[in-house]
Prior knowledge:
Blueprint: H1 9-63, E1 71-76, H2 92-104, E2 108-115, E3 118-125, E4 133-136
Antiparallel strand pairs: 1-2, 2-3, 3-4
Helix pairs in contact: 1-2
Amino acid sequence: MKRLKGFTLIELIVVMAIIGVLAAILVPVMISYMNDAKMSVANANAKLMYNASAEYATMCDVHEGTKVESITAYQMVPVNSNEAIPYDGKNLGKFISKLYCLNTKKSGVVSVKMDGDVPEKSAWAERSDSQFVGYYPEPAEKAGGSLTIE
Length: 150
């Protein structure tokens, strides 16, 4: 009787079991890495909002000398790039929208807490219902769900 060359059913099952175990180990780790990357982006965007707020506050002091008001959960939408934004301390949201949306062509939600005319804290989320919310100067450690920066 001539023996056919190939793998037996047991060998194939063992290989599939090994691949299944490896996949079960790697998938949660990869999801964790993706979540960490999203948090890093959210924290970086919160830092950008913080720096933009400081820049606007500086320009208001130089040009008008008025106090910058804080904004909370401001929904950013793309604005006209030709629009002139007055530095009167009342257009921080427009300034941040223009700066951020022109650079990324995205929208988002930002919250900035001001201490007088200096930004104290900022928070950023891709959407108002996003579970990835970044904070600055204290970066978020894990996924949140609120833009409150009390």
